[in-house]
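Please review this pair:
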Amino acid sequence: MSDSTAKSRRVQVHISPDDSLPEVLARLRNHAGKPVQLEVPDHSPILLTAAEFRALKDAAARSQIDLTLKTTDSLRVQLATMFDLIEGYAISRRGKQVSNGAGDLLPAGSGWRTGTDHESIRDDDDPISISRRRRSTMEENRRREPAPKRQRRRAEPEEEQGSLDYLDKPEKGTSVAKLVGRVVAILLVIGLVAGVAGWYYMPEVAVTATLKEQPVSGDLIYAVGLPGATLPSDVQFTIEASRVSATVNIQASVPTTGVRTVPGDTASGSVLLRNPSDAAITIPAGTQLENVRGVAFATTDDVEVPAAGGDGPGESQVDIVAVEAGNSGNIEAGALTGKFADFDVYFSNREAATSGGTETEIHSVTDADVQALEQTLTDQLRKITADGWARQLASGESLVAQSVVPGTPDYQIQQSVGDEVDELTLTGTVEASGLVFTQSEVEQQLRQAFEQQFAGEVASGYQLLPETIDLGESQVLSEAPDAVRYKVAATGNTRAVYDQAAQDHLVEQLSGSGYGDAEALLASQSAFASYDISISPGFWPERMPQTPDRITFEILQADTTAATPTPGVSPEAEAGS
């Protein structure tokens, strides 16, 4: 393929006068993997330093761009040659334009030469030092010109040369001003370079994400039995048990039903007295009054009830207290009404109830309670025996309650008829046999079985989290003398897979992108449930660093630790009598 054909296939990217270097680098990334020719006008304010050309070349390398530079500015040509962004350039010493092999011409009389003729440019060169060397080179070229030409210059009018003498012999004040100006210019350039470097390399970005999770659930059937026991085909696994005999301590109890009431506090209140007669009546303290049910009260003070007048019966108020303690003296408002037996005066508690009366019920043992306790022992002997046996087992052992076969119990009732207690109890012993197994084996095999079962239900792109498997309570399905079948349910979690290679690729994509593009990229990750971007320092504009090493990525994981089994809980916990 000819050079002209290759050139024609290059993507042409033109820099406008207002473009900044970050904008140019962002435009280049849109042509990743393609040959690109970057056209730089002379009046562009960028690509004038070695640091800028280094950033340009690094960006092209990361995006796999075959980049060349098109420019007529000799300083940019020199810098581009140093970074291998222009090939085949040569500039005539006599100022003629020479082709670079791709049809692009260089400016005549630039005084710059490529190849072995040009001065090497170091990475830390700034535009001022480059300009000084450029002027030095131009002076050297003038000294090398033919003698006649130099003579013609000396023959120029003396008046014109004299008018420029002040440039060769500056006054002391002017020299100091120029020196200060140069220092200020150098500081400005250093500040500009530092600003550009800070813009690219100062910000740090931390990206965090949580991965999506999906639940899984299921159930299975297992058995606990003697070796060789016949079991249905739906049993997932069998825990081997041993038949053991033991003397078991038993106990049982029932509530007592005998009740005796003991009065406590006494009720009190007040009543309104009304006198319809034409003479005042005095009611002495201790005068009794009662309601229709015969609950008696007595007045606490002497009280005079005035005679009736034109506006109705005379009225007075008096406090009362129940004659007997207990709840019977608590009478609702309006329920205590009537007329004194010895006085023509009526009473009523229509304004408030009487209250404060209390009593206590004391329970005691009856013959019926003894019979009920013995019947409970007979009806629930296997469960009572299994409960007592479970309390005697060594640590780590469990008992199949349904397999327990108790003998005849030997017991004593601890209370007698008439004893004032709330509960009647018996204690004793019984000889029994049953299946004993190791509970830890059940939990271990259940977790292994559910892990295998759930592995087949995991959605594509997800993985099972074994530590999240949570076992439910075992439920008895059937029982036989030599084995018992149980059913148990379990739940667990699966989490989206996002391996290290995917994380590294994401960070590479995020570097150099705009903040909005970075958010769009993170939102497009199907494995993410949520994400967050944090920029440091906080005052920095929202933008992503140009290099991946300034971006950290971390996956936040929720607490998915498995539930801790309750100590002492075993399959027989759900057993009936």
Remarks:
- Residues 265-357 form one domain.
- Residues 88-128, 147-169, 560-577 have pLDDT under 50 and may be disordered.
- Residues 172-201 form the longest helix (30 residues).
- The CA atoms of residues 297 and 323 lie 5 Å apart.
